[in-house]
Amino acid sequence: MKRIAFYGGSFDPIHLGHLRIARELTERFRLDGFVFIPAYHAPHKLHRKPTSAFHRFAMLCFATSADPNVKISPMELEHPEKPYTVETLARLKSDSRAFQIFFVMGADSWQDILTWREWEKVLLMTNHIVVTRPGYDIDFSHVTDEVRERIVDLRGIDPPYTLSDSAVRIYITDAVNIQISASRIRQNIREDKADWREELPDEVAKYIEKYQIYR
C-alpha cells in the first residue's frame, strides 16, 4: 500500500522549513507522495486574516514545481465552510482508500491539540507524524490513554524508519529541528529587513516582491 503524507497549514508564506519537512519525511518514512493542504482560514487563527488563498496557493506551486513527488491540494480552499481537520481527514479517507495516510503536524500543533475540534477522533482516524520544533516540548500527558498507546517515539533513531503497515500510529520525529517562522518572515518583510529572502525559495521571494505581498 502506498504511503502518502498530507501537511495542512496556512503556509503564509511557504518557507524552507516547510520544504525540508517534505523532503526529510519523504526519505525517512519512505513516502510515495507528499501533499500540502493550504487552509482557507485556519480555525485556530481566526484572530488574524491570512494572505489571500490565491497568493498562498500560487507560492506553494512555485516552491514545489521542481519536485514531482510533492503536490498541492486545493481541497480546503474549495470547501471554506468545512475548515476543521476532522472534516478534511474524513474526506481524505474517503478519497484515498488505496493509500496509507500520514497527517503531518508540528510540535506547536501537538501542544495545542486539545483546542482542535474532536481532537481525539482526529488523532485516532489516521497515522500522524509530529515533527519537533525548537522551543516546543513534546509532552504526552495531555492526551488520553488510548492516544498514548498509539505513540511511537522515533527521536534519535536512524532512518529509514520501520513502520507498522496495519495499525494506526502517531510517530514523533526529530527529522527536522530548525526554527523558521512564517510570522517572523512577514514581519521582516514589512520592516524591509534585507535577510528575509534567505528563509524562502527564490521563486517565492521573487513572487512576494513582484506582487508586494506583506507590505
Task: List the defining traits of the structure above.
215 residues; alpha/beta; Rossmann fold; 7-stranded parallel β-sheet; 9 helices; 7 strands; globular
Give structural notes.
With 215 residues, the protein is an alpha/beta fold. The protein has a single domain (2-178), classed as Rossmann fold. 35% of the residues lie in helices and 17% in strands. It has helices at residues 16-28, 53-64, 75-78, 85-95, 107-111, 119-125, 145-148, 182-190, 202-211, and strands at 2-9, 33-38, 70-72, 99-106, 127-131, 151-153, 170-173. Strands 3-2-1-4-5-7-6 form a 7-stranded parallel β-sheet, sandwiched between helices. The mean pLDDT is 93.
Blueprint of the fold:
Elements: E1 2-9, H1 16-28, E2 33-38, H2 53-64, E3 70-72, H3 75-78, H4 85-95, E4 99-106, H5 107-111, H6 119-125, E5 127-131, H7 145-148, E6 151-153, E7 170-173, H8 182-190, H9 202-211
Parallel strand pairs: 1-2, 1-4, 2-3, 4-5, 5-7, 6-7
Helix pairs in contact: 2-9, 4-6
